[in-house]
Every structure is written in C-alpha cells, then in structure tokens.
Write a structure and sequence with these properties.
With 280 residues, the protein is mainly alpha-helical. It has eleven helices and no strands. It has helices spanning 29-54, 63-92, 97-114, 117-140, 150-165, 169-177, 184-214, 222-233, 238-248, 262-265, 268-279. α1 packs antiparallel against α2 (63-92), α2 packs across α6 (169-177) and α5 (150-165) packs across α11. It binds fe (ii) ion (2 copies). One fe (ii) ion binds at residues 46, 76, 79, 159, 163.
C-alpha cells in the first residue's frame, strides 16, 4: 500500500444563506436536519481529533508524515470554523444545536481527562474512518445532493473531499506511535474503538436528530421520512453503501487507502468551481 496523498489546507469561505438553513435540501426539513445534526458534531469533534494527533506529534520523525499532520490539523481547523458558522445559522432557525454541541463537548472533555492518550488517538482514527466512508459515500452518490442549495452543497462536498484527502493521516500516526496490526493490542484497540465510537455517535445523533425534526414540526411528515429512508438505506442510500467499507476496518492489515478513491479528488474543481474562484 503505497498511496501517499499530501492534504492541502484550503482557506475557503462558503456564503451560506442563513434563511435556507433548515430547508436547504430539495427534499425539505427532514433531510436538511439530518445533515444539520451531523454538522453539530464537527467543530467540537474535530478539535478533539486535532488534540489527539497533536499529543503524538513530537514522536513522528518521518518528514512526509509530519507535513501531512500539519495539513490535517489545518484542514480540520477550517472545517470546524466553517461548520461553526453553519451551526449558528441552524441555531438561529430555532434549533437547540448549541446545547447539543455543548453536551458532545462535555463528553469529549471527559474522554480527554479520564482516558489514556492512546485511546483518544484510537477514537480519532475510528471516527476518521467514519468520516472517510461517509465523505466517500457522498462523493460516490452525488444524487443525494441533487437540487440542493448551492452553498450548502458546496460545504458538504468540500468537507467530503478533504476527509477523503486526509483519511489516512491519523491512521498512519496511529500505526507509527501505537503499532500496526502485527501488534495484537494495537489491532484490538482500533477495532474495539470503531464499534464503541459508532455506537456512541449514533446514541447521540439519533435523539438529537429526532428532536431537531420534531421541534420544527417534521415528525409526522411522511414524505419527508420517505426521503430520509431513500437517502440512508435506499439503493443509493448512504448507509447502505458504507456498510461494507465500515466492516473492512476489521480486516487485519486494513489501510484507509485500500478504498482507493483518489479519482474523486480530481473533482475538486468541478464540485467547488465557484467557491474556489471566489477564494482566489
Ligand atoms: Fe473534517
Ligand atoms: Fe477528518
């Protein structure tokens, strides 16, 4: 496995329309709130990722990996900044996103205080697997974003592209400082942590999401729920399409670039053309 991609930190601004925050997806509130609820996890979650990797930065001697770590930190910081603005717009629409965010922040702080640094890095690597397959899924299934508001579509595509671009960075740090799969303890830790991280994520996400739909009157919107079902577990649904890649994690010797979707990175221009022009 010799694919080496050096991520690039891009300082992009997305001119999101605050008035569209709750209904930016063409299928309406229930689908929009699904992604909006995902968005609340990013600013605090990505800060946790940055801290977890930073804990081991000094132990990395490989020059390429060092550069990749710097770019990884830069990318996650930009994601956090842009999702913070995004989350503010959703909150202005009357959704208690900030209270939910505070709860996630508390949980992550407790993890930082009470768990070993190796566990924090393993959790980061596991959650990066989730963001990599979710991002990869979004790029594989562009129809999910068909007809969406351009700004919101651009921020999600950008995030999906950069999660793809840096998907192996935390993983390579983990292999270097904790161990690769020839070390049974390192393998067991990264495997167990994915199960735990996925469980904890959905245990938070599902009640938050249902609350955020209910509070805006979408709970009985059958058409809205049908659209959510289509985009999650339907034939072209994201969860159905990432189930196998999720399980691939447990193959001994797995590496994120075993899912070779480098070709998607060539779509940067095509997916973000207008945003890139504005930033230039
Ligand atoms: Fe990110
Ligand atoms: Fe990431």
């Amino acid at each position: 496995m010799a694919i080496s991609i050096l991520p690039v930190r891009r300082n992009l601004k997305f001119n999101l329309n605050p008035a569209k925050a709750l209904t930016w997806h063409q299928d309406g509130l229930n689908v929009s709130q699904f992604l909006n609820t995902m968005s609340l996890f990013f600013p605090v979650g990505e800060r946790f990722f940055i801290d977890s990797v930073r804990n081991y930065r000094e132990q990395i001697t490989d020059a390429e990996l060092k550069k990749a770590v710097t770019a990884f930190i830069g990318q996650e910081a930009m994601h956090g900044r842009e999702h913070e603005e995004y989350n503010d717009f959703v909150a202005q629409g009357g959704v208690p996103l900030h209270a939910q965010e505070a709860l996630v922040a508390k949980l992550l702080k407790a993890a930082q205080q009470y768990s070993p640094k190796s566990f924090q890095l393993a959790a980061t690597v596991a959650l990066e697997h989730l963001t990599a397959i979710l991002g990869g899924g979004l790029l594989d299934l562009p129809e999910i974003m068909d007809g969406a508001d351009e700004g919101y579509k651009a921020i999600w595509n950008w995030h999906a592209l950069e999660e793809t671009e840096h998907k192996a960075v935390a993983f390579d740090v983990y292999r270097t400082v904790i161990g690769d799969d020839s070390n049974l303890g390192a393998y067991a830790l990264r495997s167990g942590t994915l199960v735990l991280a996925t469980g904890v994520f959905f245990a938070l996400f599902i009640p938050f999401y249902l609350h955020n739909v209910r509070i805006k009157g979408g709970l009985t919107d059958l058409k809205g729920w049908r659209a959510v079902a289509k985009h999650t577990w339907g034939k072209k649904g994201i969860f159905r399409n990432i189930t196998r890649p999720w399980f691939d994690w447990f193959k001994p010797g797995f590496h994120p670039w075993d899912h070779d979707n480098r070709d998607k990175l060539e779509q940067f221009e095509a997916l973000l053309g207008d945003v890139l022009k504005q930033a230039a």
